[in-house]
Amino acid sequence: MMRRIAVLDAPSNLGLRPPTSTSVPGCVKAPGALRDQGLLARLRARDAGCLTPPRYDPGDWRPGDGVCHAREIADYSVLLAERIGAIIDRSEFPLVLGGDCSILLGSALAMHRLGEAVGGRIGLVFVDGHSDFRHPGNASYVGAAAGEDLALVTGRGQADLAAIEGRRPYFRDIDVVVLGIRAQDEYRLDLQAAGITTRPVPTLRAEGAARTAQWAHEQLADCAGYWVHIDVDVLDPAVMPAVDAPDPGGIAFAELEILLAGLVDTPHCLGVELTVFDPDYDPDGAYAAEIVNTVVAGLRPVSAPTASPPRLLPGPSASAVSSVPSARRRNGRPEVTVTPAATPAFVPVLVPENGGDDRHPVSAQERVEDVPPAPLGPPGPVTPVAATSDGPAVPEPVGPPASVGPGLLRRAPLAGLDPDDTLPAPEDGTSPSAAGIT
Asked: How far is residue 356's CA from residue 117's CA, in Å, rounded to a whole number?
């Protein structure tokens, strides 16, 4: 039974510092640029609209004032959580197009509400070139939420962002898997000390993208389901430099495709968000086209006719949920209809009707995991590699009995970039490496 994808735009740039003193971060344009490449038609997805963010205006914010745009980010996160919850209520698979990484707070809030509703924990697969783990405990000051989002959603930082609705943390440290950070990430030791599981790029490549996705499943076996965050700066700037903080040492488009396909090829993946692509550095749309090709192929397991119906693994004390747990709330409490575990009911899943073009040169399933990744360089046609029958399978997470529920590539990088710098940008900074540092 295929799962219908619903595409929601969340073009917030509130979590980034301004590229220059007279400009704003361009990632607000990302959803439109991706849609212009035919993303919705190729996914045969429902258009879930756009959640317009508050105006970007740092005002008189200065380092030491806490997170810039905190109130606006918090308000936007609540609204975003509602929209994601409404998609999940329809038994659909949300694809959220950011925006910067601060949209993770809205997704995290939605997942915490859902976990409460089903009596289980929701996990997070954090695919990002940077750990985004700066917080008051390890930095002299904070300021840009897009460089602090993982810290915030794991309960670190100011309460107006880290504890919306009194929920803190949105994700427990042991329920987070970080993939794709650079080997020398500034906060890698802090992640280790916190018990957050990580697989940086060298290990990801050594193990392979498909096996890494399987490994991530296994790390979250005790969770009822999980959300996937993808910051496109996980890609190497030699193939995709159109981000606010390009950092050498990333992965290739083909690897991201395989990784994404493996992560979503389970009914326990509840949705995906895509962040930080900046069309201001993509004037001819070539990078947007590459991103769309990758996302369409990577999400094919979600909408394939053979896809498993969406379901959540119940928590230790949860019964089978007979209807989609609503992320909307009444009187501050979730409304959930519960039936005995012995009589679970299947949730209807909306099936796409007509139209769309899901063509892509090569799908993840057509590649061999053990073939070394192609060297990064100028874009060109992708040559299919014959699949083998003994390729690694991606099993379902091992856990309690499942109950039915919601489905739920060119320029060399510039050196000397500090991806976590939040000091005011030079007024003449116009290159991608000098703009919008998270």
From this structure: 35
* In the predicted structure, residue 415 carries a pLDDT above the cut 80: no
CA–CA separation, 216 and 203 (whole Å)? 13
Q: What is the pLDDT of residues 61-104, one digit of tens each?
A: 998 899 999 999 999 999 999 999 999 999 999 999 999 999 99
For residue 393, pLDDT over 50 is answered with no
Taking only the tens place, the pLDDT of each residue in 114-150 is 999 999 999 999 999 999 999 999 999 899 999 999 9
Which of the two residues, 70 and 373, has the higher pLDDT score? 70
Q: Is residue 394 scored above 50 in pLDDT?
A: no
The answer to pTM > 0.90 is no
